[in-house]
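Lab meeting, item 3. Inverse folding demo.
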């Protein structure tokens, strides 16, 4: 199993936990297949608050990715378009089996000293 840790804004983390956001959009993804994502909520929370399994990745032209994910994107079209502006390719992790930790965990518990800009691999 290969896992990564992603930094995600708290407002989007809340939508992931509520089930309104079943896709996590990224401009850059790892070159190897990912099975699990650890969710790091950025300021003001600054903690690993949960995890999710990755059932697949949708990728392609931003318009195509939006059409496939918009029902459970958890973000508006304007935000999506702004995020992928000027990009020929968009990626969306398909999240399932989302788990919210009862007690948030520190980055140091994962052997990490700072939150990643894109992603960081996690050893299981």
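The presenter then showed the designed sequence:
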């Amino acid at each position: 199993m290969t896992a990564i840790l992603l930094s995600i804004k708290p407002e989007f983390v809340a939508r992931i936990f509520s089930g309104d956001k079943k896709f996590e959009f990224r401009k850059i993804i790892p070159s190897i297949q990912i099975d699990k994502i650890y969710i790091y909520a950025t300021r003001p929370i600054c903690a690993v608050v949960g995890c999710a399994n990755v059932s697949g990745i949708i990728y392609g032209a931003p318009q195509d990715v939006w059409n496939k994910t918009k029902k459970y994107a958890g973000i508006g079209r304007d935000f999506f378009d702004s995020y992928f502006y000027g990009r020929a390719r968009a990626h969306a992790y398909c999240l399932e089996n989302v788990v919210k930790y009862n007690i948030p965990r520190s980055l140091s518990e994962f052997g990490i000293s700072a939150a990643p800009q894109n992603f960081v691999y996690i050893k299981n």
